[in-house]
Every structure is written in C-alpha cells, then in structure tokens.
Amino acid sequence: MLVTIFAQQSQYTLAYALIFAIVFLGFLVVCIPRPRKRTYKSAEEEKKFLKKAEIDKLKAKKKKARDKKNKKRNKARKKAMKNQ
Questions:
Q1: What one-character DSSP code corresponds to residue 19?
Q2: pLDDT per residue as tens, the chain (84 positions)
Q3: What is the mean pLDDT of the chain?
Q4: Cβ–Cβ < 8 Å for 46, 40
Q5: Least C-beta-crowded within 10 Å: which of 1, 21, 72, 75?
Q6: Residue 63: what are its φ and ψ, rounded to 5°?
Q7: How far is CA 50 from CA 41, 60, 63, 70, 76, in A?
Q8: pLDDT score recorded for residue 80
Q9: Residue 73 and residue 79: Cα distance in Å, rounded?
Q10: What residue ranges in 1-84 does DSSP mark as E strands?
C-alpha cells in the first residue's frame, strides 16, 4: 500500500515537471523575439554601416595587438625586477 502511494506521488511530481517544461518552452517561443536581419533605409546607409563596422574591427585588432605588446613588456619588466 505504501509503495503504491509513493509511486503515485513520484508520478505526480514527474507529471508536474513535464507540464512545467512544456509551459516554459511555450513561454520561450512566444516571449523571446527572434533575431532579425538589420534593415537599412537606403544603400548609402548600408555602405556607411559596413564602413563603420570595418573601422571598428580594425580598431579592435589594433587594440588587441597593443594589449599583447604591453602584456609582454610588463612581463619582461617584472622578470628584470625579480633578477635585480
């Protein structure tokens, strides 16, 4: 008798978990927007955006190289200070 009650209780728990999962997935589908392709008003704006994106990419690349160089320099300074 006790085993039967326990089995029913675990089935209820699993059923509630399944219902919660379905409701949660439905919430995700309905409430979270899909990424959309960016739209431009004109071809000139699109060119301007692409040019800005390219410039930002170059700036990021230069910053990464500069940071790498500074990290290497700082590491050499620490090593020189340690050896003195």
A1: H
A2: 445 555 567 778 888 999 999 999 999 989 888 777 777 678 888 889 899 999 999 999 999 999 999 999 999 998 888 887
A3: 85
A4: yes
A5: 1
A6: -65, -40
A7: 14, 15, 20, 30, 39
A8: 87
A9: 10
A10: none
Cβ atoms of 40 and 49 within 8 Å: the answer is yes
Distances (CA, A) of 10 to 1, 2, 22, 23, 35: 15, 12, 18, 20, 40
In this prediction, residue 2 carries a pLDDT of 47
Tokens of 71: 């990290």
Gap between the Cα atoms of 76 and 80, Å rounded? 6
The DSSP secondary-structure symbol of 65 reads H
